[in-house]
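Worked problem 6 (solution included).
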Amino acid sequence: MVLSLGITHLLKGVARVIGNHEKPQRYRIHLLWELYTLLLLLGSWWWEYRLGAIRQWHLGSYLFIIFYITCFYLLCIMLMPSPPHHCAFLPHRNHST
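Solution. The predicted structure is:
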């Protein structure tokens, strides 16, 4: 479930970059990181699917899987951060006192 959220976050970031009309400069190494992370997520998803065959879980194994998946999701957040949302309750920078 969390791996699919990471994949969704990466794909939303790619769609945001494609839909942006200003076309900010994109570095090739960043694009390679995104592609590599997407392939890692897909491979981990396939690997995680086979974990259903395990009959008995240990706490250490369960915590390792949770940590492993959380690291992937955080990597996706760092690679493709969400754009800042402008909220009405936040102070404006150009507000004179």
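Discussion: The mean pLDDT is 79.
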